[in-house]
Write a structure and sequence with these properties.
The chain is of the alpha+beta class. The chain contains 13 helices and 31 strands. It starts with 12 loop residues before the first helix and ends in a 6-residue tail after the last strand.
Length: 643
């Protein structure tokens, strides 16, 4: 079980033992700037790990920064500490470290709960406790063990650019506060019908353009949007609305900003002493040294911090492939002791982290992983890494590769569309259309396809229908639900005006219909690595750009849906679809449903069921015939037994 050491903020000998062992999972109760009372005097105990330092002092803004430095004393584990009476919440501070390199280093606190708003970079004293949570119902109901059997549709959000206020001289960035965003986003996500939000850019970072993936404040929600308690309100509000919260987390690397973790005490500390393992040249960042027990304690404590202190439901771990391989992004690289590329120390860290999280029940991890390593989501006890879910970058890449071709030529690339089923159950996947696909000249989702705008909007709806009906959890980046035409930029809010256009609003309504269908049909979300939940009806109709398949509920085999996707601008009247049993097949969804007069949700029930014909098709004994419209995806319910 994960050890919880709270009580006094003094770093005891037992704390030292756990820290050096790599099993101290409550460091944030021991290091940093902790508001406390000692000898009946209120103040703050400042503590920082800097084992190579010759001396460490804390500098306070209220004392003119360097005018009255407060010296810290060191223990046997390299933790420097001192109690400073009279310091209150809101005080800005930083550490002055006389480094092993003979230089003075002005550093932000690695464990700070709050940071100054960039471009300032000092740490800020903030209370850890005091917020009154209102999400007891959500907290008591959530169970990480049930994640795979429950619906999960994730709305990926960069809060700083989802919406902005009008910019002014007093608010040069136009950022909304966490509290304002919470109220608006909860209402919108509930209206869409998504089950979760995933937040990028929350951990404090100095450069807006990094989107929060080059972190300098691992324990601090970005001050661009408010205080730590403001962020707690955000999570609380989501939970009260029945929406889970996933936070992007970066335990692979950190930037080289002088005030951050790099060469923290004048020597390699959070990074490796081995120059071939210490950096990621492609990103110009330093790699965490997961072989160092104290670094493991720092990172695992950080995971628990977000899950426990902010009630976050899960962490999406960025750059897993970078941690798994010593040759990732490196021209020169260090083989492991067996001569291979696997980073054995990072793999051991990941297994340790997933094991203690599973034992604690505090939350779970989702892997953003581009490697070909198997067992990413297999239990650690079975030789896997223990992640609960993994982003399916293969599904994303193969599907978009197919759709970028003109429909006339798609038949030559049909295998890219159907091959994904061959590996759909090798891991527990999330099907993602993420922010990575709509930046850096990759174009917005609707701009990736050939043809006129109406054709591209129609193709996008069919893509989303395919995503929501294919095995795996779902993720869609903000703005793509209404087919934003411009690439995303962190500098501006979404082009909400796009959603006022009829064609774009049609896409928005289609996504909403799909989210509702997905949540209401167990056969679409209870797949949990079970290949019996998916079977092809027709995977070889390349000439017409059509695929069809069946989704089944493994706990109720009669609970099944038939899905047909037409990725062509052609209409196929009387299109034959092979079915496994005779009866009446009723339509549950069509990408045309959101168009007025075309069989919307209220009208679909009045459309006559399709009657099966005892004549074989696609290896099935029966078939139904349907007038399949251009770029139409349909979902049909199976006949009711005995009905």
């Amino acid at each position: 079980m994960a050890k919880q050491i709270k009580k006094s903020p003094v770093f005891t000998e037992y704390d030292q033992f756990l820290f050096r062992e790599g099993t101290h999972y409550d460091l944030y109760h021991k290091l940093g700037a902790l508001m406390t009372t000692e000898n009946r005097r209120k103040g703050v105990r400042f503590s920082v790990w800097a084992p190579h330092a010759h001396a460490v002092s804390v500098l306070l803004a209220s004392k003119g920064w360097g005018e009255s430095p407060v010296p810290l004393s060191v223990d046997g584990s390299g933790v420097w500490s001192a109690f400073v009476p009279g310091v209150k919440a809101g005080e800005a501070y930083r550490f002055l470290i006389a480094g092993a390199d003979g230089q003075d280093h002005y550093k932000s606190d690695p464990m700070a709960f709050q940071a100054e708003k960039r471009p300032a970079n000092a740490s800020v004293v903030a209370p850890l406790e005091g917020y009154v949570w209102q999400d007891a119902a959500h907290q008591s109901a959530r169970d990480p063990r049930k994640v795979l059997s429950e619906p999960m549709s994730i709305y990926e959000v960069h809060l700083g650019s989802w919406k902005k206020r009008f910019m002014s001289e007093d608010d040069e960035d136009g950022f909304l506060n966490y509290r304002e965003l919470a109220d608006q986003l909860a209402e919108y996500v509930n209206w869409l019908g998504f089950t979760h939000v995933e937040l990028i850019g929350i951990c404090e970072h100095p450069f807006d353009g990094s989107w929060g993936y080059q972190v300098t404040g691992f324990y601090a929600p970005t001050s661009r949007l408010g205080t730590p308690d403001d962020f707690r309100y955000f999570v609380d509000r989501m939970h009260q609305a029945g929406i889970g919260v996933i936070l992007d987390w970066v335990p692979a690397h950190f930037p080289r900003d002088a005030f951050g973790l790099a060469w923290f005490d004048g020597a390699p500390l959070y990074e490796s002493e081995d120059p071939l393992l210490a950096t990621y040249p492609e990103w110009s960042t330093n790699a965490f040294d997961h072989s160092r027990p104290e670094v493991r304690s720092f990172l695992i404590s950080n995971a628990f911090y977000w899950l426990r202190e902010f009630h976050v439901d899960a962490l999406r771990v960025d750059a897993v492939a970078a941690m798994l391989n010593t040759n990732f992004s490196r021209g020169e690289w260090r083989p492991n002791k067996y001569g291979g590329t696997e980073n054995l120390e990072s793999i051991a860290f990941i297994k340790q982290l997933n094991t203690v999280l599973a034992e604690s029940g505090a939350g779970y991890l989702i892997a953003e992983d581009s490697s070909i390593m198997r067992g990413i989501t297999a239990p650690v006890s079975e030789g896997g890494l223990g992640f609960k879910l993994k982003w399916s970058l293969g599904w994303m890449n193969d599907t978009l590769k197919y759709l970028k071709h003109d429909p006339i030529f798609r038949k030559w690339h049909h295998g890219a569309l159907t091959y994904i089923a061959d590996y759909a159950f090798t891991e527990q996947f999330v099907l993602v259309l993420s922010h990575d696909e709509v930046v850096h000249l990759k174009h917005a989702m609707v701009e990736k396809f050939p043809g006129s705008l109406p054709d591209r909007l129609a193709a996008l709806k069919t893509l989303y229908a395919f995503q929501f009906t294919f095995p795996g959890k779902k993720l869609l980046f903000m703005g793509q639900e209404f087919a934003q035409e411009r690439e995303w930029s962190e500098k501006r809010e979404l082009d909400w005006w796009n959603a006022e256009d009829f064609g774009h609003r049609d896409v928005l309504q289609c996504v909403r219909n799909l989210a509702g269908l997905y949540r209401s049909e167990p056969c679409l979300y209870v797949d949990s690595g079970d290949p019996t939940t998916f079977e092809w009806v027709e995977r070889n109709d390349a000439d017409r750009n059509v695929i069809s398949f069946i989704r089944r509920n493994p706990w109720n085999y009669d609970d099944a849906l038939l899905v047909v996707c037409n990725f062509s601008p052609a209409q196929y009247n009387g299109y034959w679809i092979g079915v496994p049993e005779e009866g009446y097949y009723s339509r549950a969804f069509s990408t045309y449903d959101s168009l007025p007069g075309a069989g919307g949700p209220g009208e679909g029930r009045d459309i006559p069921p399709l009657t099966s014909v005892p004549e074989g098709c696609s290896g099935r004994a029966h078939h139904i015939a349907y007038d399949l419209r251009p770029y139409e995806a349909i979902v049909l319910r199976f006949p009711k037994r005995g009905g």
